[in-house]
Amino acid sequence: MATITAAEVNKLRKQTGAGMMDCKKALVEANGDFEQAIDLLRKKGQKIAANRGDRDAKEGLVLAKTTADNKKGVMVVVNCETDFVAKNDDFAAFANNILDAVIENGVSTVDAAKALTYPGTSLTIADRIIEEVGKIGEKIDLSAVEIIESELVVAYNHPGNSLASMVAVSKAGDAEAEAAKNVAMQVAAMNPIALNDEGVDAETIERELEIGRDQARQEGKPEEMIDKIAQGKLGKFYKENTLVKQQYIKDNSLTVEAYLKSVNKELVATGFKRISLS
Hints:
The structure is a single chain. The chain has 278 residues and is α+β, with helices and mostly antiparallel strands. It is 49% helix and 19% strand. The chain has helices at 6-16, 20-29, 34-51, 83-86, 89-105, 110-114, 125-136, 174-190, 202-218, 226-241, 256-263, and strands spanning 59-66, 72-80, 141-149, 152-157, 163-169, 247-248, 251-255, 269-276. It is elongated and about 90 Å long. The chain starts with 5 loop residues before the first helix and ends with a strand. Residues 82-85 are annotated as: Involved in Mg(2+) ion dislocation from EF-Tu. It holds the Pfam family EF_TS.
């Protein structure tokens, strides 16, 4: 049996991030073969990942970033089990590396992202997730990838990184970028369900109309007025829940649409994304 030195254990620990005892056991089992020891640790990670497959990974980080030309925005969610891990600098670096890989390669689905090469390694992101599970001892997953493109995209990361948003607008420029940032903060705070009326799905519209009809009947309104009243309530719903019709949070005298036009009469929001862990 090969003699395993503390220096070898420390070297393996630094390379893999695994615990000292795990590294020593792997080196002993591998009879001192460094590459085999790494494989053993990876297999351990796979085993841990499988064992933790039924665990909830509801904590984590939501990260958003734009490309250098600010024409594309990318958002990812990397989950873990505990807030303690989510606040760890190493986990944050791991999640940000995944975000960078997605931005660089322009993929738009979780499966495509997991197949990418993790930066600085020859491993896929899926394999690096397995390794990270072995290192940290918690279930970890890449659960969401969102992409948005336009003439200008701005990303907003809320402090704590449990919430992020992106807003796309039709014109680029410094003033337009500042306005888009303000609207991205609006999206984070007010959680609109759609960009405009047309973006609200038919099921939601019919549900709101039915609620409006029921409320009108309970108030004793004439039957011939029921549909008109329900349409009025639907209009209020649009104002509260579609981005362009919401009151602008920094100036309630304006809608978001009007605020953007006050910056540039041709400036309109073309889309948004928002993800929150809560």
